[in-house]
Every structure is written in C-alpha cells, then in structure tokens.
Specification:
With 665 residues, the protein is of the alpha+beta class. It is built from 16 helices and 41 strands. β15 (270-278) and β16 (284-290) form a beta hairpin. The chain is elongated. Residues 471-478 and 649-665 have low confidence and may be disordered. The structure holds ligand MV4. The site of ligand MV4 has 17 residues, from β9 and β16.
C-alpha cells in the first residue's frame, strides 16, 4: 500500500495533486526552492523539504536533492506534475532504482515518445495515422533534400528531439529547403543537443485536438474524450476546451480508438495525451504523445466527472482502471484559460512583483486551479501563470458566459495580467462559432484592443478620483453643504493627468481639460465603490496600496498613482498654482484678489486650524485667476482655495462652471 506521496513540483499543479492525495488519505511531502519557502504548495503539504536555490536547475530539476527529500521523509511514491522532471526517463528510472513508485508511465514509454522520429515510426506500425513525411535515421542534408521531392510543399522540418513547436520550420518551396535544413540543424543542436531532423507535409490551418488516455498494467486502456487546444500563441496554449466544437461523435470514436492503440503499442501506464492535428476535412494525424498529466486536464475532469489525479494514483498502486470505456460519458462543456501575470499590450512581457490581492470570483460551474494567494510575490524564476480559470456549462455558450464573468469579477490587484485578452477571446464571434484554428490569434485577433496599450478614460479616472477623495468624504452626507473643489493629480502608465473634482453632496463632477464626467456616489467601503453613472448603478472593485490605487470595473482593470502632494520639480521650483488647504479648518482672512499679481511665497489666505493661524502661500509667481473661498468658510484638507495663472492670459483660461459656495444643483 502506498502511503506517502512526494510532489516534485510547485505552483498550481503541486497544489492540485496535494488536494487529491490528501483526500485519498495519503501523507504529502512538498519540495521547494529557497524562493518558494512561503508558497501555497508548501503550506498545504504535511511536510516540506527545501531542495535548493531559486534557479530550477538547482532545485526543481535537481534529481538528487528530490530523491534525498523522499528518503528523508520516507515517501514511497513521487508525482512529477508537468514540466520539470515529468518527462525525464532517467528520473523515472532513478525513482524506481531508489525503491520509489514514479506516478507516471514506464521509462521506456517516456523515452520512445521523446523522439519524434521513433515515436512516429512506432505509431505508424501500430496503425495510428501520421502526417506523411520522412523519418530516416539521422538523415543527412542530401537524404532530406531527396526525400522532400516525394513529400511536396509546403512542408515542415522538425527536430526529432523537439516538441511543442521548438525546432520546427515551415518551408514553402524547394528553393528555401537547403538553407532551412541547415538552420534547423544548428538550432536543434543548440536547443536539444541533438540535430536529428524529420520532414512532414504541412497541414494548413490545422486544429490541435488531443485525446486523454489512461492505461493500467493489466492491459486496459481507455480514452476520456478530447480537448481542443487550437487557440495558441507562439505554441503556448491560451484556451483549452472539451469537447472540441469541431469533433463529431464519429471522429471522437476514431481518434479515441487510435489514441488507445498508441498507448497499448508502447506498453503505456497511467495518464497520457495523444496530440493530433486535424485538417479542415477532419482528417487527423498523430503529432506526439505527452507522457504526463497535462496543464489542461481539468476540462476533461469537468466533462467526465472523474478525478484524473486519483486515477493516476490508482494505476500507480497497480490497481485496474476505475472505469471501462463504455462507462465513460461526456456531459456538458468545459473551457479553461491560462491567467498569466503578463502584459499583452507590451509583447506579453512577464510581470513580476507583489500580488496585493487575488480573490477568485465565485459562481456555479467555476473552478480555479491556482498556486498563489494575496500577498505572494510573482518572481522572475518561474512561469508567471497565476491560475487556470475553468468554467463548466450545460452547453458551450453557458461555459463561455460563466468564464467571462469569472475573469471579469476576479479581483487581481498589483500585477498586470492577460485577463482582458482572455475574456475578449472567449467573447469573440469566431471563437464563439467554434471556428478558431491554430491561426486564429494571428489572423483574426492581432488588432484586438486588448493587445494595445490603453490609457484610462475620464470615467475610469473619475472612479479613481472618487476613491482618492482627499479627505473630503466626511461631508458627503450633507446634501446642502457648499460645493468643494479638489484638484487631484494622477499618474497612470507614463502620463500625468490633472483632474478637478467638484463635489456637492454625493454628486461628483470631474473635469480633465475640456472633458467632464459626472457620477453619483452611492456607497464606498471594503474595496467596493458603488456609483450611478448616467442613471446606471454599478459597482467597482478597488484596492489602495500606499499612493497606488488599483481598480476594476466594466470588465477592465486599471491603476493610478496619486501624486497630488508630490512636490513639482520645475526648473524654477515653482508649483502648480493650484493652492489647496493644507488641513481641515476655517478661513479667517482672504488676501488674494482675482486679477492681482502675486510672488511665490506671498500669503494668499489665512487658515485657522487647531487653534493656530496658518498662512497659505503662493507656490509660484503669477496672477490670481480664481479665488474659491471666502472669509468664514469651513474648508477640508486639500480643498482648492486659490488658483494662480502664469501670466496676463489669466482671464482667458476656461471659466469654471461650478463656483465655490454655490448651492448644489
Ligand atoms: C505541424 C503543423 C502543420 N503541419 N505539423 C506546432 C507544435 C508542434 N507540436 C506541432 N506543430 C505543428 N505541426 C505539420 N506537419 C502545424 C503546427 C502548428 C501548430 C500545431 C498545434 C497547435 C498550434 C500550432 C501552431 C502553429 C503550427
């Protein structure tokens, strides 16, 4: 009986495996790098062992340290997750040699599938359809060039040791062939230490459809439907779903049976994925077999109702598969997206830093697989995936709707993410019609606004200003209080905007140059701002962190920095000319007069606060353009008192509609 599972991984997949292992009664051991000492997977495991410094080569890829951790904790089995050592045949063998059960297929199956050339030959022999091509053993350039004549164009050159699109080249015509072979060889040597190449006819605008298979050591093998992973960006999967909107019941059966043949042909055991390309005529071709549990396994779990990690542990214990093929039913539809800390508007640059808040949305049919929580730091050492967001629905549109809501309502403050890019894809009509192929993102989505840098509009800035408020919120309850004006300076992206907030009761008017926007504030507190905008009541989520303010509403996220009180550093040391009350108090004297010339340092107004008189001084030379206060006024901290214009053009400045002291309209 197996009792104690070591998880040789980190992040969401380690958390995912620990969850099922604990539920089945296993003790769990986490391993972690120095950078992950406070990670969620470490917290959730019964025991945890540090296996080295942050770099993966020194920790999560360090076979010896992991095996030593297993020995120290008396673990009897190891789950490798995905990535890292999960498809390393030498590691699987080393586990076995150390008397540990490797929760994965036998080493020879891993090894066979690690070679495109050998796996393709084996699959062809087993009767699995493969893309027509050439699979000569260490073929020379001349042999490849000769073979290409029988294949035709366009064709693909692939590195035998490659996978996931690495070392792959598309060749359109014979004239480009020799040069591309040379390049592919040197790239492949560089990337994989092996320069064996194969050739394949290119399948045009294919779909990527993969079959989940499971096999046990008693000769049973089944398929659990397919996943469509056609929506990819540079060979990184972005969206995965099950079932595929393109796969008919007949095609599913044919591909499923081919995938089972593939598993049986290599004496497979455990979870595996057989990847196929499917062309527009629904011909399918074996691409490769992934000998691990895949990132996107949850969509299969949601439509089959099965726990694939539980199946893996069952098979690892030597027991037969839980279900026969005829017992496996597919119900409803599931879609997964990979939520990343990355910036789609700047080349999908990975983002690092403090994740101030991460609060997954709640709702029927939603699942979040995540390895992070609020307060974690996203470091540059590992993949910056924050979570897999998965929605199940009775039908595809229900799953889409639920997923869009989940993306929009999840609170993520602190790092830029691809969430808007993801929700735009799910909402897209081509995707909605089930017509997305592997060319979709490049062909139909490259101009999407979610890929362009966006500057917040006045409504978004108004919401920010509404939250920042500068201490005048206390008067919002008085419906007949005089209007106050507060200048707020915000930095957003690399722009600085000056907003003037005129408040009367709970009505706030915002002006930014000539642009105006008015909101009614309903309530604010606990990270939620409720407003009425143009008669529509809605809620905005926000998070304040120092002078940074993060917001999300209308399906968008934005952030600003409040720099109102930052000293302006002009060459003359002059200020903005917008003179504000430095604290709450009463105006006991107004010295400034509209049109009057002032020098920097001149006293404009005298404010009495805490039983002391405070002169309020000009922060630059100029002409008084507006006086917004009168003797005897009670003023709030940061309320605008006097404006100083630079020179004689003061009178030509845009006039303010809202005069201070006016009754609220
Ligand atoms: C192909 C192909 C067209 N024809 N092979 C890319 C990843 C690697 N696993 C296989 N890939 C492809 N192989 C032939 N003969 C097109 C791709 C391909 C692709 C495949 C799946 C998902 C996305 C893709 C994006 C570009 C190219």
């Amino acid at each position: 009986m197996l009792k104690k599972l070591l998880i040789a991984n980190r992040g969401e997949i380690a958390v995912r495996v620990i969850r099922t292992a604990k539920a089945l009664g296993y003790r769990t051991v986490a391993v972690y790098s120095e950078a992950d000492a406070n990670a969620l997977h470490v917290e959730l495991a019964d025991e945890a062992v540090c296996i080295g410094p942050a770099q993966v080569s020194a920790s999560y890829l360090n076979n010896d340290a992991i095996l030593e951790a297993a020995r120290k904790t008396s673990a009897d089995c190891i789950h490798p997750g995905y990535g890292f050592l999960s498809e390393n045949a030498a590691f699987a063998t080393a586990c076995q040699d150390a008397g540990l059960v490797f929760v994965g297929p036998p080493a020879p199956a891993i090894e066979l599938m690690g070679s495109k050339r050998r796996s393709k030959i084996a699959m062809q022999q087993a009767g699995v359809p493969v893309v027509p091509g050439f699979e000569g053993d260490n073929a020379s350039d001349d042999e490849l060039i000769a073979a290409a004549k029988n294949i035709g164009y366009p064709l693909m050159i692939k590195a035998s040791a490659g996978g996931g699109g690495r070392g792959m080249r598309l060749v359109e015509s014979e004239s480009e062939l020799a040069d591309n072979i040379k390049r592919a060889r040197s790239e492949s040597k560089q990337a994989f230490g092996d320069d064996e190449l194969i050739l394949e006819k290119a399948v045009i605008e294919p779909r990527h459809v993969e079959i989940q298979v499971f096999a046990d050591r008693h000769g049973n093998a089944v398929y659990l439907g397919e996943r469509d992973c056609s929506v990819q960006r540079r060979h990184q999967k972005v969206v995965e779903e099950a079932p595929s909107p393109f796969v008919t019941p007949e095609l599913r059966k044919a591909m499923g049976e081919a995938a089972v043949k593939a598993a049986l042909a290599c004496n497979y055991e455990g979870a595996g994925t057989v990847e196929f390309l499917v062309d527009k005529h629904r011909n399918f071709y074996f691409l490769e077999m992934n000998t691990r549990l895949q990132v996107e396994h949850p969509v299969t779990e949601l439509i089959t109702g099965q726990d694939l990690v539980a199946w893996q542990l069952t098979v690892a214990e030597g027991r037969p598969l839980p279900l026969a093929q005829s017992d496996i039913r597919l119900t409803g539809h599931a879609i997964e997206v990979r939520l990343y800390a990355e910036d789609p508007a700047h080349g999908f640059n990975p983002q690092t830093g403090l994740l101030h808040a991460f609060e997954p949305a709640e709702g029927e049919g939603l699942r979040f697989d995540t390895g992070v929580r609020s307060g974690d730091t996203i470091t540059p050492h590992y993949d910056p995936m924050l979570a897999k967001v998965i929605a199940w629905g009775h039908n595809r549109d229900e799953a889409r709707r639920r997923l869009i809501r989940a993306l929009e309502d999840t609170a993520i403050f602190g790092v830029t993410t691809n969430r808007h890019f993801l929700s735009r894809i799910i909402a897209n009509d081509t995707f909605g019609a089930g017509e997305a192929t592997t060319a979709f993102l490049q062909q139909a989505f490259s101009d999407d606004p979610s890929l362009q840098p966006q500057t917040p509009d006045i409504r978004q800035l108004a919401l920010a200003a509404c939250v920042l408020d500068h201490g005048i919120s206390g008067q919002s309850a008085w419906s007949n209080a005089p209007a106050t004006m507060t200048p707020i300076t915000l930095e957003t992206g690399d722009t600085i905007v000056d907003l003037l907030v005129t408040r009367s009761g709970n009505r706030l008017s915002f002006s930014m140059g000539e642009t105006r926007h008015t909101l009614t504030l309903e309530s604010q507190g606990d990270g939620l701002l409720c407003i009425i905008d143009n008669g529509v009541r809605q809620t905005c989520q926000y998070h304040r962190q120092g002078d940074s303010l993060y917001l999300q509403a209308f399906g968008r996220s934005w952030s600003v920095r409040d720099i109102t009180y930052q000293p302006t550093t002009g060459a003359t040391g002059a200020g903005s000319g917008r003179i504000q009350a430095s604290m709450d108090g009463a105006i006991i004297e107004v010295l400034a007069e509209p049109g009057g010339s002032v020098r920097q340092g001149d006293t404009l107004v005298i404010l009495e606060a805490m039983k002391m008189e405070h002169p309020v001084k000009a922060d630059r030379d100029g002409v008084v353009s507006q006086v917004h206060t009168r003797k005897g006024d009670q003023v709030k901290r940061s309320q605008l008192l006097v404006e100083i214009a630079e020179n004689q053009t003061a009178g030509q400045e845009p006039t303010q509609n809202d005069k201070p002291g006016k009754e609220p309209s």
